[in-house]
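Lab notebook: predicted structure, single chain.

Context: the supervisor wants predicted structures on file for every construct in the current expression panel, including those that have not yet been purified. This is the next one on the list. No modifications to the sequence; it matches the entry in the shared construct table.
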Amino acid sequence: MGFGTELFGGGEDFLGSPKLREFSCLILDVQVPGIDGLELQLRLAAAAHPIPIIFVTAYGDEKRARRRCEVRR
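Prediction complete. Output recorded below exactly as produced.
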């Protein structure tokens, strides 16, 4: 399909990427090493880089879903 991909070891690695502004979508597990996926989302939004994120996880729960909705407001 022509999409480029890149893998990162954790949230800090992604935030430290020199190509951070080039990414147009992030597929992210809630449970990543270091800062969790929801914290990464908050940091991206605070840095004026609200990249669209697709969250995937095997550890979903109602509390996390509510936190996710609050971040979007």
